[in-house]
Description:
The protein is of the alpha/beta class.
Amino acid sequence: MGRLKNTSIDVVVPLYNDQExxxxxxxxxxxxxxxRFKSVHLILVDDGSSDSTFxxxxxxxxxxxxxxxxxxxxxxxxxxxxxxxxxxxxxxxVAVMDSDLQDRPEDIIRITEQxxxxxxxxxxxxxxxxxxxxxxxxxxxxxxxxxxxxVPFKVDPGLGAFxxxxxxxxxxxxxxxxxxxxxxxxxxxxxxxxxxxxxxRSNRVAGMTGYTFFKSLKLAMNRILTYSFTPLRLSITIGVxxxxxxxxxxxxxxxxxxxxxxxxxxxTSIAFLTSFFAGLNLLFLGIIGEYIxxxxxxxxxxxxxxxxxxxDETE
Length: 315
């Protein structure tokens, strides 16, 4: 506890259509942390909300100088909003949590203590009790299975965005300029040691999850195509076996004609094989195109997010 009192902390929270939770969120963060750490600042990042989230957060920020408010120009996604928020931090350590208060602010204390105790630069909350939403549970599970099969690093399905990082890690994340990746997948890919801390997740204070099945699948595909060459290698393997298969069909047809003197019906088999291999070619071209497209985006230096305004600009 003594080390916590000498440590300043920034808490980064992405917001998206969270008008009902902004006030209880700010209240909970400060009430749980302000007497445990040397100083506490809250960085709220509005990710293009279409409701009154920004206006409410702006009103609170005017009354509380420990809140920094960042407004993105559009809806860039949770991970991009987190990346934007990290650039506004300057404390000794940085916590990241969701806005719905399923991540409990009081757990930040325990997560930080484990980070210090295990002497690692990152500590991540691991939740064994997932959402009661069947679609979210299924999509999260599918995301985990697909990712762990195809990427060169494994991620425990209980790990989410809720974590604490020291200043050195945050500085390194802020220096990364890649357009297509996500900050946390990058950390996993670099195999930086981290502590896992088991926590209980609370019920949502209000609203519904923004993570749909398709958003989770998109996130999984982004991780795979950014940090893994497995799809390319898999396409090579399938191509080799497809070639051997077609060679086998050809040999069978020739031998059948030579030995049995039977001519195989041609149009059906030709049409089938042509369409089958044409489909494979299109699939593999699509995979290659995804990689080339990402290289193109990186070469252009396309930003991951665009900041519309921040409270620092108005001070």
